[in-house]
Structure formats: C-alpha cells, structure tokens
Amino acid sequence: RVRMGQPLVTSDRVAVEWWTTMDDPDDGEITLPGCLLLRFAPDGRCHELWEYWQVRPGRQDPPPGWGR
C-alpha cells in the first residue's frame, strides 16, 4: 500500500512525503516512510529526482495528521 502526502510546490520544485507498507521477501512485513524531491526543467520534464526513506519492521500506520 502506498500513500502520498500533500505536495509542496514552487515554480520548478516539488517535495512530497510517501508512506508504504509491504511484504518484503526477505524481511517480511515492513513500513517505508520517505520523501521525493524533484526539480523540473523549463519544458516541464523532471530534471532531478532525489529520494530518501527509512525501513521499519512490521506494518505501521502514519501518525495522526500525516499527509495533510
């Protein structure tokens, strides 16, 4: 399951948090909260993409109010 937070947008950049729960073949159930950082070229295509995340054991829901 993948959930996306509310994106923060400027003229050429976007930052958006995401929250994923999944079954990993090696580790079993895991939770991956993370963030995407994108910068766009003048023609509107993605020019740079940075991403980071954290792995947590088990399925965990986001904290209250997350993603708003």
Q: Could you characterize the architecture of this molecule?
A:
- The chain is mainly beta and 68 residues long.
- It is built from no helices and 6 strands.
- Strands 1, 2, 3, 4, 5 and 6 form a 6-stranded antiparallel β-sheet that branches.
- A hairpin with a 3-residue loop joins strand 2 and strand 3 (13-24).
- It is elongated, with a radius of gyration of 14 Å.
- 3% of the residues are buried.
- The model has no long low-confidence stretch (mean pLDDT 95).
- Rg, rounded, reads 14 Å
What's the helix-strand series? EEEEEE
Number of helices: 0
* Beta-strand share of residues: over 45%
Ends distance: 18 Å
E-strand count: 6
Shape: elongated
Q: Residue-averaged pLDDT, rounded?
A: 95
| Helical coverage, percent range | under 10%
Contiguous uncertain segments of 5+ residues: none
Largest sheet: 6 strands, antiparallel
Q: Which class do the helix and strand fractions yield?
A: mainly beta
Could you list some keywords that capture this structure?
68 residues; mainly beta; 0% helix; elongated
TL;DR of this structure?
The chain has 68 residues and is an all-beta fold.
Which helices and strands appear, and what pairs or packs with what?
Elements: E1 2-4, E2 8-9, E3 13-24, E4 28-40, E5 46-53, E6 56-57
Antiparallel strand pairs: 1-3, 2-3, 3-4, 4-5, 4-6
